[in-house]
Structures are given as C-alpha cells and as structure tokens.
Specification:
Helix content: 25-40%
Shape: globular
Number of strands: 7
Distance between the termini: 20 Å
Order of helices and strands: EEHEHEHEHEEH
Largest sheet: 5 strands, parallel
CATH class: Alpha Beta
CATH architecture: 3-Layer(aba) Sandwich
Strand order of the largest sheet: 4-3-5-1-6
Structural class: alpha/beta
Low-confidence stretches: 148-152
Strand content: 15-25%
Number of domains: 1
CATH topology: Dihydrofolate Reductase, subunit A
Number of helices: 5
C-alpha cells in the first residue's frame, strides 16, 4: 500500500492562507493542476482535514466522483493518524494525503511518496510546507526499508 502526500506549493513554500484554498495567479494554471491531480488520484482514497473540506464545500465543492473516495480526517475520530491509516489500508487502494497544513504535518511521517508541484499563488501565505518537512526525517521505517520521497 502506498501513501503519498500531494501539495501545490507556491513561492516561499506557501500552501495557502487561513480559511481559504490556494489562490492561483492564473486560472489556466489552476485548471492544469486540477487535471494533473485528477489523473493522479484515480482509484485513490484522498484524505483531507475537516477544515480543508469545509473550505472546499463553502466554495462549491460537492465531493468526488466514482473514481476516487474522499475521507475526512479529524481529531474527533479519536484515532491517531497511524490507526486511521491502518483502517484505510484495508481497502488496498493508493492513499493520498491532500491537505491542509495540519493534516500534512500529522501524516507526513507515514508517506512513501511526495508529489510537490511548484505553482504561482497570490494568496496570503499563512501556511507553509517547509516547517513540515522535519517530520519526514523522523518517519517510521520497517526493518531494511528505505523511504525516498518522489518529488514531482
């Protein structure tokens, strides 16, 4: 089972502003990134934090299609990120960690791959990805297992 973190990252590791999704400088770039994510996520379970999902719904997002499953993660589940992922891994699907900042930070130690795309964002950079990366250094490894991030 593969767990991948997917993030669109602007200048200075900007991944978004408080209570808003990343705002692209160019709508055609936003559309290209959406197409890329759609292709990457076919057949996957997408994990997002409850705040990110709330923001997306406020902006008109109604859910995902039959090709992918969106699973919200919240502390209210009463599960650690490790236990939450263990339950999802029973589905035998690719798991994508799709944001926001807290979800990235908590789930990063469990990720096998990192798909980071440089984009041009114009929003207030309240959240950055760079402070999250130290948790990758402390990721959990099995005996003889080496995790190498795949950066896209």
């Amino acid at each position: 089972m593969t767990i991948s973190l997917v993030a669109l990252v602007g200048a200075d590791a900007n991944i978004g502003s408080r209570d808003d999704l990343p705002v692209f400088a160019d709508n055609s770039e936003r559309d290209r990134q959406a197409q890329w994510f759609d292709a990457l996520s076919v057949g996957s379970i997408i994990v997002m934090g409850s705040n990110t999902i709330r923001i997306m719904r406020r902006m008109g997002f109604q859910g995902v299609d039959a090709l992918r499953t969106l699973v919200p993660w919240t502390r209210e589940h009463g599960l650690s990120p490790e236990d939450f992922l263990e339950g999802l891994q029973r589905e035998q699907q690719h798991i994508i960690i799709g944001g926001g900042a807290t979800t990235f930070r908590l789930f990063m130690p469990f990720c096998d791959n990192y798909y980071l795309r440089r984009v041009t964002l114009i929003n207030q950079p309240d959240f950055r990805l760079d402070p999250i990366f130290p948790s990758w250094q402390t990721r959990l490894l099995g005996a003889g297992e080496e995790k190498v991030p795949r950066l896209s």
